[in-house]
Amino acid sequence: MKIVLVSRIDDEEALRYTASLARDLEDLGHGVTLEEGTAQRLGREGIPFEEITGDLVVVVGGDGSVLLTIHQMRKQVPVLGINWGEVGFLADLEPDEAGAFFATLKDGFRVERRMRVSLSVDGKHLGDALNEAVIVTERPAKMLRFGVYVDGIPSERFRADGLLISTPTGSTAYAMSAGGPIVDPQIEGFLLIPLAPYMLSSRPHLISTGRILEVTLETEKPAHLVIDGQSTFELEREAKVTVTRSSEPALFVHTGKPFFEKVNYKLRNL
Amino acid sequence: MKIVLVSRIDDEEALRYTASLARDLEDLGHGVTLEEGTAQRLGREGIPFEEITGDLVVVVGGDGSVLLTIHQMRKQVPVLGINWGEVGFLADLEPDEAGAFFATLKDGFRVERRMRVSLSVDGKHLGDALNEAVIVTERPAKMLRFGVYVDGIPSERFRADGLLISTPTGSTAYAMSAGGPIVDPQIEGFLLIPLAPYMLSSRPHLISTGRILEVTLETEKPAHLVIDGQSTFELEREAKVTVTRSSEPALFVHTGKPFFEKVNYKLRNL
Amino acid sequence: MKIVLVSRIDDEEALRYTASLARDLEDLGHGVTLEEGTAQRLGREGIPFEEITGDLVVVVGGDGSVLLTIHQMRKQVPVLGINWGEVGFLADLEPDEAGAFFATLKDGFRVERRMRVSLSVDGKHLGDALNEAVIVTERPAKMLRFGVYVDGIPSERFRADGLLISTPTGSTAYAMSAGGPIVDPQIEGFLLIPLAPYMLSSRPHLISTGRILEVTLETEKPAHLVIDGQSTFELEREAKVTVTRSSEPALFVHTGKPFFEKVNYKLRNL
Amino acid sequence: MKIVLVSRIDDEEALRYTASLARDLEDLGHGVTLEEGTAQRLGREGIPFEEITGDLVVVVGGDGSVLLTIHQMRKQVPVLGINWGEVGFLADLEPDEAGAFFATLKDGFRVERRMRVSLSVDGKHLGDALNEAVIVTERPAKMLRFGVYVDGIPSERFRADGLLISTPTGSTAYAMSAGGPIVDPQIEGFLLIPLAPYMLSSRPHLISTGRILEVTLETEKPAHLVIDGQSTFELEREAKVTVTRSSEPALFVHTGKPFFEKVNYKLRNL
């Protein structure tokens, strides 16, 4: 197989582990390439995220490293995360489980598709979010006013510190801190969660991806839209954000761990 | 069309309105039958819920009357609710909107399917819930212990006052009081919500109907399972409740009101 | 000192520990009496809860055993709980910490007063709650309607599964499962928490004990009032429950453990 | 009486009302002074907030105007707010109620003291908050890590978007949006509420003002501390914020409206 390795670059041990993993995978007969930043830290040659192709990307890091990789790849390649962080919902294997997985790699693996939300503002595509996009104020402690349109129909207006637009995958990330439900990634929906809403009746909403979803900023205050904690965009006043299901889902290696067992175990240990 | 009329029977005005509606519909050329209880109160002949057939059932009442009708019909017929209660999420038309609807009835109507959950205990089918099934203790203020199995895998265990198993339709009913999200009825999922869970990390879960879901009672305390607030069953100790998507969804006349606009309007006015 | 020992009676190890503790305390020169139920299980003589007097009651058990003891004592005597249960917020010492405590007992101990709420219905005193009183329906899954009067003024009306009236001490018990805040026991207040309230704007309220607080049942459905999970009372229709600060606080031995450190540690490990 | 008038200056009607109120109060024999900004807009002479003295300050505006006035006054003078905003929890009278109040003003009025929290960072006093101080990140969607010390003892550590330190008065403001309880202003306590906490067991805490409360920033990310939405301070890395009960409470004219009746009415109409 053609495998690309990515390591978090702020952790010497993760880098050493990645270098040793590269040797092991080559010994197993796979073709191994390093991502550019990782390669640099190991004194080797590599390719930028944007040019990643092949059968598999192995990411040694936490959820942030996995998000970064998926965010930067031009074309989605199946990702396997080896958890080198605190709590890894996206980095599915612990380092001590990796050996067993790679031993059977030549027999192939199952791929799990995870929907992403595509964000556009006034017709311009900003990017795709695997976990969530969040709209927040630029000024501390100043509320924004939002309008939500479903299938073109005004459905809700509220004031809040911000608004999260999460995927089911993101339901165990920021959305969970903000009070949202855990959503099965086999369900396709847009999870809308207001941050500290002023109106007490504001509740998380899960909206079918079959709907057309638009969010408008109804205040003149400056705001930011942040995708997966990776990219930040300035929103103009009265901006209209269009939310659709991305045509390019993220691809994950399915390691056989049942979603709900994994999630509830991790929740209890946050 | 062949139309059956059901009225709440504890409200004289609703009954009078129903009688007058029967005349109007007959004048429009439809065949009208009354449900037995409604008929009795109007001094006429009727048919029991179980024998309802035809093109349309019109229910004059609140959500309870709609739930009762759907619960009792042996075979689902499309339901139109005319709201004669407090807040009607299921009774879609206000009385003053009914005339306009019936005027165009002969041209047909769109039917909206709403999934129901089918509840079985130790292999025996108890019934289908349009809104929710709830498992609660028989003894006030005593917690139960639950186990949740997804696809046969133990996924969660917790202690709580009770457990709600709701449909998306039920997400604006009891599930909402219990802290759940609003779920688009276009999404098919089982919404699990613990009532006053002891473990603080317990969160509402939305589980795909493609999964096999089982809930076990892990305490020896007696408990009840209540379906849509209509039927109550005693659960034996260590009972295992199997939750599946019912093969018979409820059928509603689609009156053209957008779901989210309606819901958010009603929420603000609870 | 004159010490009374109480053990949970459903656990042989707790009973053996209690018997051995009795000998140790007598060896240290203290006068030891056993509570009647405990005594019976150990084949000895004892006194009923109601007749407990002296300097100190040591309870070997969980929070339930401590609540039972305080509930039954006619006159409050300082209580020390040795935790023989799951999570003990009221049973302050772990068994392995008890030796060090008793070694210095002859030098005296500090007593911490914890407010209780006194519950009366239509002028008749029902009892005092150290943790909470809860009003719940007798029929599963049927909402009650409540009115809340503060200083005689109607302040809130809502429908809910039930209503918790908790003390600050109880804020880490049932009230916490029901979504309430953690309240410092140095604060004196009545914590009102609706269970699954229908109106989304219903929030936990903390009301000064300087206020006159009354709760009315506004539905004709039968309801129960349960005090500390120990005593259950039937509430008549339209009952009015008067809540006051009990003139007899519970007395606890202050073992020097800081409240918030203890609470947050236990919360993380529920 | 010596009365100072303050108006919101962005609303012509409020200014006209204030000018007319000035005449009315002078006709009733009171000495009236205008605040400088208000005076300027009316083409008259005034005094700066800092120099306000006298018997009474009347503020025509919303809660923001009342907060600004209390924030800027060097020495607290009793405040009466006439609500010229959306929902006024601090601006107690509606304009049509003002006449009746002023008619009996010469007989005096009752003053209600509302505690404020005093915020210091590394020994330097930053200001007093009537509603709340909030610590938030400067960078959108990046969590902060906090430590909470009660009486010098480490009591909690958590990651969150921010942390609110609210008074009971502030419990109906930002703290409510963030999920806190309603707290009787007759209770004196510090209400700590994390914003979108990562650890699910994080709950609002109400801590007695008799305690010493310190909050530390445990991340190296830049953060802001905002007092009552009025003043913003940059927090240095590893800053320690000390929270005490201010020795100068805010003073309000007690208009006789019962707190809980008022609050619940307004909550239902947010």
Automatic annotation (TrEMBL), chains A, B, C, D:
Record's keyword annotation contains Transmembrane: no
EC number: 2.7.1.23
Free-text function comment from the UniProt entry: Involved in the regulation of the intracellular balance of NAD and NADP, and is a key enzyme in the biosynthesis of NADP. Catalyzes specifically the phosphorylation on 2'-hydroxyl of the adenosine moiety of NAD to yield NADP.
Keywords: ATP-binding, Cytoplasm, Kinase, NAD, NADP, Nucleotide-binding, Transferase
UniProt subcellular location: Cytoplasm
Domain of life: Archaea
Protein name as catalogued: NAD kinase
Protein species of origin: Methanoculleus bourgensis
Record gene name: nadK
GO cellular component: a single term: cytoplasm
Swiss-Prot/TrEMBL catalytic activity: NAD(+) + ATP = ADP + NADP(+) + H(+)
A Pfam entry, by short name: NAD_kinase
